[in-house]
Amino acid sequence: MENPENVTNTMNEAINNVIEKSRKIDRFLFRNLAPNVFLGTASDRYAGWIGQIYTKERYEGGISRRTKTVGGKTFVEKTLPVESVAEYFVHFPVLEIDYTFYSPLLDEDGKPTRTFHVLRRYRQHMKQNDRVILKVPRVISAQKIHRGGKYVENETYLNTEIFIQQFYEPAIEILDATLNGIIFEQEYQRKQDRVPVKEMAMDLNRFFKSIPEDTRYHIELRTEAYLSFPVFKVLEKHGVGQVLSHWTWLPSLRKQLTKAGNRVFNSGGQRIIRLMTPIGMRYKDAYAKAHPFDKLVEGMLQSEMVSEVANFMREATANGIETSILINNRAGGNAPVIARRVAEQLFEDLEPD
Asked: Does residue 23 lie in a domain region?
């Protein structure tokens, strides 16, 4: 029979652990949250996070402003300097850097672009155990590119040479061990514009067969019709992870995984979950509601999403699935507070009786 004193000590230790985790979560400290769980955000440097992630006094005089037009409306974005990433990583273990989606790291002549220089500056302010998930440029991952006010066919779609020379090799050179994941994001395809699923699978097979093998590849397909057996077979063959994305026109995260037979295709045993927008809400509407990204917006955060992610985090710990959860402001108004809600839900589920 187990010693009652040992049982009591074990219970007290568990309770104290939950209390300590709760205190850290209140201060937006998410490193070492739970085994195999890495909670982070999609992009950083938002001035709206001052007082949560960033210390006001550090960046006085260093905030820059830029205008951005979304859905015909103009917004002012306030951003912090690159060195703020050091403070970001005090709070989070992983960061998705998404500005690489808009430009390769090297131009067609092999010269470093502005994106290259910014990424190198990021690396200078990071420690060796900080983790980065990087987005592949859209000139490689997108079937169509927005040019001249309309979407046109992308002639460099799944171009092996551009991927290797202008993105992959310089990314590894800059980030070395901190590069933890590489995301290929493909835009939503309207029904009249979609290629047949088998053709999509063949294109992906050709591409992943011709690039360097790597355990960090993941693909986000925003067209539900492509979440199908021929495509999943290719992902499994090449060890490419299926990004689970909480996004406008996709089904729930759990349904996306169910379509894949609840399997982890990534050869490194990694899973990436991106919380981008409320389901059913367009980008322009989500952006307008969330701006300036300094607080949760009433009625915007979907509780089902929070519960789903907490369940995925619990499964990551129980099943040894390394899981990165990347939160965008547009999922509810303010990514740090959404992260806190998710973490609180996790520990509510784990709290001892």
From this structure: no
